[in-house]
Amino acid sequence: MNKLYPTAFRAMEAARPASGFCPETETEWLNLQKAQEELGYAMFRDFGKSETEARALANVIYGGAAGRRLLHIAFSGDHHE
Hints:
Blueprint: H1 4-14, H2 26-46, H3 51-62, H4 64-75
Helix pairs in contact: 1-2, 2-3, 3-4
């Protein structure tokens, strides 16, 4: 595990929604998406990608509309709303 994981894990913890599970506000969704992108970046660096490649790949997968859609899919089974 590389040195980037602790930072990514702290970002994920900081992005925990107030409900403890599913984001409920736009800010919570954005914070979680940014944290997920950081975790993806750490993972791609661990897999041997350069900083530039890892950042670009994490952004394509976890940033923008694609990343938001992945989060919505992940929480689609949640019936706590």
